[in-house]
Amino acid sequence: MKVLLTQDINRLGRMGEVVEVAHGYARNYLIPRGLAVGVARSRVKEIAEHKRVLEIKAARQKAKLEELAERIKSKPVVIKARCSASSKLFGSITNRQLASEIGELTGEEIDRHKITVDERIRSVGMHHATLKLHPDVEIDIAFEVEGEGFVAEEPEEEPGEPEAGQSAGKKPESPGETAAAAEEPPEPEAREIPEGE
Questions:
Q1: Which of 61, 130, 160, 175 stands 20 to 30 A from 189 (CA)?
Q2: How far apart, in whole angstroms, are the C-alpha atoms of residue 39 and residue 42?
Q3: How far is CA 23 from CA 3, 27, 37, 160, in A?
Q4: Structural contact between residues 91 and 55, judged by C-beta atoms closer than 8 angstroms
Q5: Alpha-carbon distance 15 to 53, whole Å?
Q6: In terms of Cα–Cα distance, which of 137, 120, 136, 117 is closest to 128?
């Protein structure tokens, strides 16, 4: 069955296109939801007019998304996340967080499913993602992950505690004393010789 798409549908077609689909798919899903209208021979003129209106609408939508893409590229995107002192994140940055941050910057709602992050982001620094706003509008987003929520602290030493390997009350030997002790052979013990030998 032929239908005229009134919206872009992934893997099927763009707004304003006439496509061939299964009869049941059109009658039970596309047409009731307003995603398409049936193309009948008796409605050729009406369909042609509808198609022209949808093409104009699609062109305006594309222009609007191109403008949004330029606005996104012109603003620095920074995501703050908790991390350790070694700059490793507790968890990873998701496309949901990125969509939320871009939405706050632009005032436009961004569908997280249109953002692709190539690898798992688990460290602070600069990273990249792809945002596909429209089949013809795709941009690369450079964004920075900033760490927060940690304080680099040096381990505190207790004032009276001996260092490892030393017992309390024993002074550490200097390297010279240790070497001298190792080189000197032990003195032979004095032995009394009994008389008569």
A1: 175
A2: 9
A3: 10, 6, 12, 86
A4: no
A5: 10
A6: 117
The DSSP bridge pattern shows strands 115-116 and 88-93 to be unpaired
Q: What is the CA angle 76-118-116, rounded to 5?
A: 65
SS3 at position 31: coil
Nearest one of 42, 32, 39 to 16, comparing CA atoms: 39
CA distance 18 to 54: 11
Q: Is the pLDDT of residue 166 over 60?
A: no
Residue written as token pair 């620094």: 125
Q: Is 7 helix (H, G, I), strand (E, B) or coil?
A: coil
Contact between 102 and 78 (Cβ < 8 Å): no
Q: Average pLDDT in the 56-80 region?
A: 90
104-144 pLDDT per residue, tens:
988 888 999 999 987 788 888 898 899 998 888 899 988 98
Question: Which of 142, 133, 89, 81 is closest to 112 using CA atoms?
Answer: 133
Domains of the chain with CATH codes: 2-65 (3.40.5.10), 75-148 (3.10.430.100)
